[in-house]
């Protein structure tokens, strides 16, 4: 039963992607290779895209290319949760080998996650730049040049503003929130916690597995030495078979561990990053909300003051009034003037409030849509990830079953 | 002695002596043996089949001490019974008196025991006889005992011993159905006692004691140490059954008493044969150390093996070659199994930690599926749960695997290692027996040389004398001074003797002067006084003493030869069955662990396949 429903959902997702610009995309990032260019060495990744017509397009891109794409998408779609890229990891290049197999393999998988997320995103997948990035080298080169120059001209300005804004509002909290948003936030936090815990535990498991691989290898050598003690009961061949099986077990665990380390852990880490991006988006939405709330607060204040003025001498104490009278100020005239000023302020505030409300509402709507997008992509990812997890385990156990059944047969016979 | 291993045997002997002398001056271990020899077990009746009965002469042979003992004391039977040896005997923890007094108590079996009556203040052991019979060793493995008739431990738990002490007791059910409760310390003492009682048999191992630290942190009691008790129970069962497999142990009275509820183990430990165990098994009949055999006490006791090893390695006979083969094989086993055991232990520990982390994973996945049941993930949650379940199964089966690795591999390997360690004890014992023989042979050689030397000198002297007599006879003059001797020199022999005595006197006079003058030069490098510096009296006495010693030493040589024969046969048999046991254990181990691994794989595979099915195709 479970199978059919899951299948149904999967096809539904694909259907929606079909309607998109690029159709069904199966993006694979693989084969990281060290290249030497004009400005030193870099790692080039092979990106192959399988389109609807089963056509496979292969391009080679480096990490900075993906960064450009990411920044462009983030700029063009400010309301979208653009999937995060893995960190640039400057430190890694210093502390350890930037071109090590472990590092590039992990990054490779992470980049694949990024591209798949972008392709699965309704709005982002329609981007022309994505198309050229994935399929057309010349177009991408041209776009790249203009992007680089644009970034050089003015970059970062908007970003800084955002930062200060966020800082200003850091201590303010949203008063009125839709239940939906609250729920989304809670769900997101919960997921974050769970994924974080899984991440940590898998990390430990991976380390333990590494130790075990060494143990098994050592055990194998010890058993191999026992081969010399050919007794009446066991033949050297049997010891040999057992030793080989142990070695294979060691390799099997090692392979399984590589998957866990290079793919599953990367998936989990990426998911955490993605969750974080979503959280940023929710924060942005909150800021819009806070803007609106502050405006409306200001407006209520002004309205109250005007009402008081209209109603009488409220707002000014007796002493001031007397003083003004003494100075020969026409109180009535001054009051009228004030009221007119306030009226003007109220009407302008009302307009601003209206637009802020619109922005906030629109943003919330957009965010909720993004949340739905995110959850769809996440579910898809989870499904794939779980499937791979199961597949790798099954593969491991099947291999081992074959190996050890052979050992059993050898020992029995 | 230490240089023995550097030089060929023949060439070594003189240096050997020198060494001994030095040692003697230092009050070295040999002094102990000397005391033993001086302890004066007057009559040394033979125990089994020494056809030549040893007469009532005290043996002071074998020990280097008396060699240089110029006072020549303690040779006579009477002297043996003197107060001094008794004091010595006391020093020997009553082991020696046990034997000698039991001799006197069993006077029916041998004559001449009356001479040791001074020792009879030690009470004879009436029960001694029951432990003495050496069971006929049948080398057949007891197949009949294998299947049905097995010793088992049916229960374990807190019990109160007759002294009111609480301890964990193990209820043993014997093949005959009797039940007896024994505790860990009793098993341990049985193990200890068996090792002493059967020096030529490899004794099955028992589980090790707790590390002391663990004991302080967690004093043993029935509640929290169920795991340890369970483990010990299992290993005690294998210990008892493996003991039962060995004919020598099975038929040993101590082992039988251990399984007999009639006996209180403390009483068994405080009665013969345990209490009459000799201090050193080397000085007792090898197959039955509690059997009294005074002649054995006279054997030398080499302390360290390293010094005599090269001598032992001269192997000619087939038995010795076979021994070498087995020794080498066991050494190789040790070199392999020891690191293997350590490695398995380590791996298993790591598997344990891994499995606990996998358990954590399972828990998190299950929590994941419960906590994040939102619309979008709703269907995925089922899969997540299945994955969590797979991890749970992996955890449980991994734990089971670790458990079986522990029970099926780690423990048997531990046993094998302990077996191998114990086999060293047997081999060392055997080698020490060889060392004993070497020492005896060397001593005989030395004594014979001295004996011959003295005899040669005597002969020379005689020749000289007869030459003198001939001269005297040839000259027809008879000195008046000569005829004044009490026995009138009527016959040539009398005449010659008087001449001899005259010569003797001259020689003696010179000798005494020389001795004073030369001092140390009179002593040759063996620590013996050169024959020409001895008086006739001294020479004759030494010759007599040497003859006695030599006869005793020959006695000892025969004894040790027979001992070695017995030790070889018994030890070889034990080692053979040990190798057989290890081989079969190894086979069993391989088979069972392979099964366990397959079970683990199958279990996990099934769980993951179920999970995969619920996720569906991608």
TrEMBL record, chain A:
UniProt-annotated location(s): Cytoplasm; Endomembrane system
MF term (GO), any: phosphatidylinositol-3-phosphate binding
One GO cellular component term noted in the UniProt record for this chain: phagophore assembly site
Membrane topology: Peripheral membrane protein
GO biological process: autophagy of mitochondrion; cytoplasm to vacuole targeting by the Cvt pathway; early endosome to Golgi transport; endocytic recycling; glycophagy; piecemeal microautophagy of the nucleus; protein localization to endosome; reticulophagy
Keywords for this protein: Cytoplasm, Lipid-binding, Membrane, Transport
InterPro entries: AH/BAR_dom_sf, PX_dom, PX_dom_sf
Domain PX residues, every copy: 23-141
Listed SUPFAM superfamilies: PX domain (SSF64268)
Primary residence: cytoplasm
Pfam families, per database record: PX
Sequence similarity: Belongs to the sorting nexin family.
Stated name of the protein: Sorting nexin-4
From TrEMBL, chain B:
Gene Ontology MF term list: phosphatidylinositol-3-phosphate binding
Tagged with keyword NAD: no
Signal sequence region: none
UniProt keywords, alphabetically: Autophagy, Endosome, Lipid-binding, Membrane, Protein transport, Transport
Gene3D superfamilies listed in its UniProt record: Arfaptin homology (AH) domain/BAR domain, Phox-like domain
Keyword Protein transport: yes
Composition bias, Acidic residues: 13-27
BP GO annotations: intracellular protein transport; macroautophagy; retrograde transport, endosome to Golgi
PROSITE patterns: PX (PS50195)
Domain PX: from-to ranges: 147-265
Topological relation to the membrane, as annotated: Peripheral membrane protein
Annotated region described as Disordered, given as residue ranges: 1-36, 80-121, 478-497
GO CC, alphabetical: cytoplasmic side of endosome membrane; cytosol
Location(s) in or outside the cell: Endosome membrane
Superkingdom of the organism of origin: Eukaryota
Bias type Low complexity, positions: 97-115
Name the record gives this protein: PX domain-containing protein
Organism name: Huiozyma naganishii (strain ATCC MYA-139 / BCRC 22969 / CBS 8797 / KCTC 17520 / NBRC 10181 / NCYC 3082 / Yp74L-3)
């Amino acid at each position: 039963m479970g199978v059919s429903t899951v299948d149904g959902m999967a096809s539904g997702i694909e259907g929606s992607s079909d309607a998109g610009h690029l159709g069904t995309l199966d993006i694979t990032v693989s084969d990281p290779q060290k290249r030497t260019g004009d400005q030193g060495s870099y790692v080039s990744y092979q990106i192959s895209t399988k389109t609807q017509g089963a056509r496979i397009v292969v391009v080679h891109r480096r990490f900075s290319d993906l960064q450009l794409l990411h920044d462009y998408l983030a700029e063009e779609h400010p309301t979208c949760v653009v999937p995060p890229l893995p960190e640039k990891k400057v430190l890694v290049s210093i502390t350890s080998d930037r071109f090590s197999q472990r590092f590039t393999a992990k990054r490779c998988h992470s980049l694949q996650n990024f591209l798949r997320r972008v392709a699965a995103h309704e709005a982002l997948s329609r981007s022309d730049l994505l198309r050229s990035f994935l399929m057309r080298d010349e177009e991408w080169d041209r776009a790249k040049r203009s992007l680089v120059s644009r970034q050089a001209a003015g970059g970062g300005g908007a970003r800084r503003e955002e930062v200060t804004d966020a800082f200003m509002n850091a201590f303010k909290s949203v008063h009125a929130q839709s239940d939906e948003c609250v729920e989304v936030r809670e769900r997101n936090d919960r997921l974050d916690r769970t994924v974080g815990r899984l991440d940590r535990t898998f990390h430990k498991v991976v380390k333990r597995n590494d130790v075990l691989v060494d143990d098994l290898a050592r055990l194998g050598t010890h058993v191999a030495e026992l081969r010399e003690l050919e007794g009446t009961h066991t033949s050297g061949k049997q010891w040999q078979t057992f030793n080989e099986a142990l070695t294979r077990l060691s390799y099997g665990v090692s392979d399984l561990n590589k998957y866990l380390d290079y793919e599953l852990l990367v998936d989990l880490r990426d998911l955490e990053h993605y969750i974080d991006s979503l959280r940023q988006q929710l924060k942005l939405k909150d800021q819009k909300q806070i803007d609106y709330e502050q405006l409306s607060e200001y407006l209520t204040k002004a309205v109250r003051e005007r009402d008081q003025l209209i109603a009488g001498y409220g707002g000014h104490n007796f002493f001031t009034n007397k003083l003004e009278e003494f100075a020969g100020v026409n109180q009535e005239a001054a009051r009228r003037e004030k009221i007119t000023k306030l009226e003007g302020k109220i009407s302008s505030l009302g307009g601003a409030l209206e637009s802020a409300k619109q922005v906030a509402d629109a943003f919330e709507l957009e965010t909720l849509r993004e949340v739905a997008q995110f959850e769809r992509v996440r579910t898809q990812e989870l499904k794939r990830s779980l499937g791979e997890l199961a597949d790798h385990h099954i593969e491991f156990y099947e291999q081992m079953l074959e190996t050890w059944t052979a050992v059993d047969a050898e020992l029995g016979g | 002695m230490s240089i023995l291993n550097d030089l060929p045997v023949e060439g070594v002997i003189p240096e050997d002596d020198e060494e001994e002398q030095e040692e003697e001056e230092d009050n070295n271990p040999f002094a102990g043996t000397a005391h033993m020899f001086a302890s004066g077990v007057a009559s040394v009746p033979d125990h089994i089949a020494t056809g030549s009965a040893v007469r009532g002469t005290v043996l002071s042979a074998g020990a280097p001490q008396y060699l240089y003992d110029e006072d020549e004391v303690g040779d006579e039977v009477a002297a043996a019974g003197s107060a001094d040896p008794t004091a010595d005997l006391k020093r020997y923890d009553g082991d020696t008196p046990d034997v000698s007094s039991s001799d006197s108590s069993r006077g029916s079996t041998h004559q001449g025991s009356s001479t040791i009556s001074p020792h009879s203040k030690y009470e004879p052991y009436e029960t001694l006889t029951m432990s003495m019979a050496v069971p006929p060793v049948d080398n057949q493995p007891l197949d009949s005992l294998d299947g049905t008739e097995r010793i088992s431990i049916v229960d374990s738990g807190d019990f109160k011993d007759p002294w009111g002490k609480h301890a964990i007791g193990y209820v043993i059910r014997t093949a005959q159905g009797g039940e007896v409760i024994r505790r860990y310390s009793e098993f341990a003492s049985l193990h200890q006692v068996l090792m002493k009682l059967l020096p030529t048999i490899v004794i099955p191992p028992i589980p090790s004691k707790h590390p002391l630290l663990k004991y302080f942190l967690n004093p043993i009691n029935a509640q929290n140490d169920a795991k340890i008790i369970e483990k010990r129970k299992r290993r005690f069962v294998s210990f008892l059954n493996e003991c039962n497999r060995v004919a020598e142990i099975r038929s040993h009275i101590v082992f039988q008493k251990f399984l007999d509820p009639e006996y209180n183990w403390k009483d068994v430990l405080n009665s013969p044969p345990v209490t009459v165990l000799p201090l050193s098994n080397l000085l007792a009949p090898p197959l039955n150390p509690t059997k009294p055999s005074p002649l054995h006490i006279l054997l030398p006791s080499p302390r360290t093996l390293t010094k005599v090893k090269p001598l032992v390695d001269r192997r000619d006979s087939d038995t010795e070659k076979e021994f070498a083969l087995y020794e080498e094989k066991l050494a190789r086993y040790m070199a392999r199994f020891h690191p293997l055991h350590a490695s398995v232990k380590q791996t298993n520990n790591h598997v344990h930690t891994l499995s606990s982390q996998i358990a954590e994973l399972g828990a998190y996945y299950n929590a994941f599926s419960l906590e994040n049941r939102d619309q979008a993930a709703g269907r995925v949650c089922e899969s997540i749960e299945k994955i969590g379940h797979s991890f749970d199964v992996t955890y449980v089966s991994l734990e089971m695997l670790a458990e079986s690795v522990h029970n099926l591999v780690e423990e048997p390997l531990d046993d094998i290692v302990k077996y191998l360690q114990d086999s060293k004890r047997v081999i060392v014992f055997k080698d020490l027996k060889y060392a004993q023989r070497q020492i005896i042979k060397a001593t005989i050689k030395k004594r014979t040389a001295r004996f011959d030397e003295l005899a040669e000198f005597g002969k020379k002297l005689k020749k000289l004398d007869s030459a003198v007599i001939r001269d005297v006879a040839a000259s027809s003059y008879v000195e008046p001074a000569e005829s004044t001797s009490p026995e009138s020199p009527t016959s040539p022999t009398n005449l010659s003797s008087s001449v001899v005595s005259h010569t003797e006197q001259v020689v003696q006079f010179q000798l005494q002067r020389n001795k004073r003058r030369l001092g140390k030069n009179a002593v040759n490098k063996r620590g013996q006084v050169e024959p020409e510096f001895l008086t006739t009296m001294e020479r004759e006495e030494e010759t007599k003493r040497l003859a006695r010693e030599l006869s005793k030493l020959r006695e000892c040589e025969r004894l040790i030869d027979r001992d070695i024969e017995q030790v070889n046969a018994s030890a070889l048999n034990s080692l053979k069955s040990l190798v057989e046991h290890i081989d079969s254990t190894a086979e069993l181990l391989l088979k069972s662990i392979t099964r366990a691994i397959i079970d683990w794989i199958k279990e996990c595979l099934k769980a993951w396949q179920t999970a995969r099915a619920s996720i569906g195709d991608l």
